Each structure stands twice: as structure tokens, then as C-alpha cells.
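User: Sorry, what's this?
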Amino acid sequence: MSESITIAIDGPAASGKTTVGKIVARELKCRFLDTGTMYRAVAWGAIQNNIELTDRPSLISMASLLNIKLVGQGSAEKLLVDGIDITEQTKNEQVDSTVSIVAMISGVRRELVCQQRRIASDGPIVMVGRDIGTVVLPEAEIKIYLEASVKLRAVRRYRELLSKGSNVDLARVQDDLQRRDDIDQSRSDSPLKPSPESVLIQTDSLNIQSVAEKILLLASRY
């Protein structure tokens, strides 16, 4: 594997990006960044500071000032904002319903993309998100786009939330995912879509390990 390889993995919510990305990064012994956690940090900050989602200047200003860091690896990875561990707080339903709206704001995306590119410049990395191959790292050696039906993704997210003790309804989870898809795919700035160079992987009939192995096979050629 090249010492400077960059792997970009994109796809809709609950398509398996983060789990697959962590496996690939572990096998390749390189860094991993889920850029979605950075947008979740901004959404969490907006909620904590009672910033209206229509107040774009304040949201952009906050995004530029937040000190966002990922520490640890794998299951021990923590999201710190201004030194505070907010890992679990960014996974609740309120943040889920807010994050796509925050991510639509061009100024917020601009601030976070700058941070993401700086992180990538430090060496080999697997980076996952919704615009990695198209916007953040357009020169990435390997670009992957994971696809899965909204029905299957809803079941995955539903089981994840149940395992954490959340009282959720499957139909509502599916509706929320469809709403997020619509927002992510229709936004004018960095819409969710595969780049022309992306390798498309349909994950409905594949387990996580099989998806990771496909990506590792591609990486072995570099």
C-alpha cells in the first residue's frame, strides 16, 4: 500500500460507511475520520447554545470557533468539542433531526471542509462522509460509494438505537432517513452523489466484512 494513500467512502445515512471505514483503516493501519461527527458537533453546539437553525451567521461563526478533535481508535474513539467528550450526546434523535439542516449551510461546510483537508494532509487516511470523493478529497486514490435501500438502512439504525436503550419506532426511523436523504441529495452545496470515479458497492446483500474486503482488495493495488 502507498504510504500516502487516501480512501474516500461516501454514502447515505446508515449505509455502513463508519463501520466499514473503521475496519479498512484498522487493516491498513492508517487513520480514520468520520466527517459526519463534525457536522453532528455543530448541530449539538446549536442545540446547546439555543441557536436557531435559521440563524446562519451564528451557526457559521460557531463552526469556525469549535475546537473539534477525534481521539482514540476503533470502539474507543471519542469526539471532543473544546475538550469535552460529547460522543454519546451527538447520537440522540434531536441531533439526528438537526444535522442535515446544519450541513446544508455553505459557510458551515466551508469551515469544516478546511479542517478535514488539513487532517487528511497529515498522512494515509480513510475518510467517510457524503461529499468526500466529490468535494473534500477529489484527488483521493480510492473512492467508494456505498448504496443500500432506505428500508434496510432503517432496520440497521433502528436496531442500533434499540441497543442503546432508545424508545423508537421503525416507521419513524425510516421516515427520518428518507427525509435526510432528500435534504442531502437536493442541497445546492455539495449534494450527496457518487463522483464519476467512485466504485459503487450495493450493500443490501452483503455483510460489513464483505464490503470491507472489497475495499481492501482495491487498496492492495496501490
In short: Strands lie at 6-10, 31-34, 68-71, 78-81, 84-85, 125-129, 142-147, 199-202. The domain at 13-207 is CATH 3.40.50.300 (Rossmann fold).
